[in-house]
Amino acid sequence: MTLSMNTSMTALDSARIIELHKLLADWGEGTSQATGEEGQGAAATPNDATWRHRFFDTIFWTNEGGDFSAVVSASQSVGPVGQYTWRSAQMVADVQSWLENPASNFGWLVLGDESTIITSRRFDTRETANPPVLTIQYIAGARVLPTPRPRPTPSAASISPGIRYPATLQRSLPQVAAYCGVSQADQTRCVSCTKQPGSKPVRPYHSRK
Question: Hey, how many other C-beta atoms are within 10 angstroms of the C-beta on 112?
Fold first, then answer.
């Protein structure tokens, strides 16, 4: 799994560590749009995420700057403008947790080096020609087929002409008479009836006492 992002502007070409952190709360996007090279920002509009707000200007972050996990999901050294990728086992774990619980999917926060000045970077967003791309490689699991349901063995009570039955099937005397067409007198002497397998009924054989 890799996340690819394009750095389109930087104040200095010296490399700085850029980290990904799993966000723990939802956040919004308004309609604000910075002018020029965008370094000066723009006034927030309703539902924008800002330093203080998750949704400007009504819902605040619990912690100013964003509510995110202290665990570093991935890090990358970013220098001059160009394409950079992030990959790690923790990123896989994050995405798996979002798959299992979609309601917790708030994405990653991109955290730069804020320990000194002139370290900002501009990363292109989905509105540009070089949007961020998350690539996931996976192996499909084995297909599990349902267990076939066993076919019931016909009982004496369900016998009827024209149906294929096992070679030997015990039947009661009235059912033998109904199936075989034997006389009432023969019923008293008929013990069992067998039907040979086949697509058509055959004359049953009657064993006598």
Answer: 14
Taken in order 170, 173, 174, 176, the sign of the CA dihedral is positive
Please state, in angstroms and as integers, the Cα–Cα distance from residue 110 to each residue in 23, 49, 85, 182, following that order. 10, 14, 13, 89
Same structural domain for residues 120 and 193? no
For the whole model, what pTM was predicted?
A: 0.67
**Torsion of Cα atoms, 111 then 49 then 122 then 32, to 10°:** -170
Residue 20 domain boundaries: 2-29+46-135
Residue 146 domain-assigned?
no
Looking at 100, 119, 135, the residue that finishes a domain is: 135
Q: What is the mean pLDDT of each run of 10 residues along the chain (209 residues)?
A: 96 93 97 88 95 97 97 97 97 97 97 88 93 92 82 59 47 49 46 43 43
